[in-house]
């Protein structure tokens, strides 16, 4: 691999993460939905560890920025459900090769797309939060895309509540996921080095979003994200199928 090619791939990866971080800061989730398939297409080693590590810093920034609306007690059932979900997701990683991992990512993203298009709504109660947290754990640690199940439940809440509390939930999720991936040998020192160039892009996307968040057309972001997700899924599946 030439240096120019490696730099081009790194630039595309950083740009993708920056865009994902921007979207997640604006609407509460979406970083992995956008970035995971493109990063997997560039280099499968980016998923799940490095993208989860990068997302951790987006969550830290958002928890701080939107801390006035934070109320983790309202999502405690989801946090409890996330723990066994992470264990199940870790088991899937042990038995799934890259081909099946790509299919898992595609299914997770298509679930998110369908959820957004049809605006499914479920009651925000402890039972649903637990199972949403469980599903988020399974999807999050196996594919890095854990946002859709929990976002499905809170989508009817105020924007400030969604941003703050999803950030808190995802912060906990990223930490627990990495705590499982490290002893499994799936997030190693080499993966850490792969993650580090993504951090400035993560923080840049977060900063830009925070500065213009009150002026952003949320519908435009939503439909643009859906189109990008579908395109990314197609590209990723083409790579693993041919």
From TrEMBL:
Topology class, membrane? Multi-pass membrane protein
Query: Does Membrane appear among the keywords?
Result: yes
Listed transmembrane segments: 7-40, 46-66, 100-118, 130-154, 166-186, 192-213, 220-238
Q: What UniProt keywords apply to this chain's record, in alphabetical order? A: Cell membrane, Membrane, Transmembrane, Transmembrane helix, Transport
Reply yes or no: does the keyword Transmembrane helix apply: yes
Record's superkingdom? Bacteria
Enumerate the Pfam families for this protein. Answer: TauE
What does the UniProt entry say about where the protein is found? Cell membrane
User: Of which family is this protein a member?
Assistant: Belongs to the 4-toluene sulfonate uptake permease (TSUP) (TC 2.A.102) family.
List, alphabetically, the PANTHER family matched.
Answer: MEMBRANE TRANSPORTER PROTEIN (PTHR30269:SF37), TRANSMEMBRANE PROTEIN YFCA (PTHR30269)
Can you name this protein?
A: Probable membrane transporter protein
């Amino acid at each position: 691999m030439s240096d120019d090619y490696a730099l081009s791939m790194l630039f595309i990866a950083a740009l993708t993460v920056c865009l994902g971080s921007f979207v997640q800061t604006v609407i509460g989730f979406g970083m992995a939905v956008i970035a995971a398939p493109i990063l997997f297409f560039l280099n499968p080693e980016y998923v799940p560890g490095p993208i989860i590590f990068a997302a951790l810093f987006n969550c830290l920034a958002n928890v701080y920025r939107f801390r006035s609306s934070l109320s983790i007690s309202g999502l405690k059932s989801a946090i409890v459900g996330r723990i066994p979900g992470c264990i199940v997701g870790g088991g899937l990683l042990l038995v799934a090769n890259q081909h099946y991992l790509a299919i898992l990512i595609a299914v997770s993203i298509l679930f998110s797309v369908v959820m957004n298009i049809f605006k499914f709504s479920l009651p925000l109660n402890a039972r649903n939060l637990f199972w949403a947290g469980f599903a988020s754990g399974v999807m999050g640690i196996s594919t890095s895309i854990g946002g859709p199940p929990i976002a499905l439940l809170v989508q009817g809440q105020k924007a400030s509540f969604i941003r703050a509390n999803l950030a808190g939930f995802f912060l906990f999720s990223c930490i627990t996921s990495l705590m499982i991936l490290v002893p499994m040998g799936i997030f190693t020192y080499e993966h850490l080095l792969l993650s580090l160039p993504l951090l400035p892009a993560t923080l840049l996307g977060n900063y830009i979003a925070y500065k213009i968040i009150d002026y952003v057309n949320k519908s435009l972001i939503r439909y643009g994200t859906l189109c990008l997700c579908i395109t990314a899924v197609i590209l990723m599946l083409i790579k693993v199928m041919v």
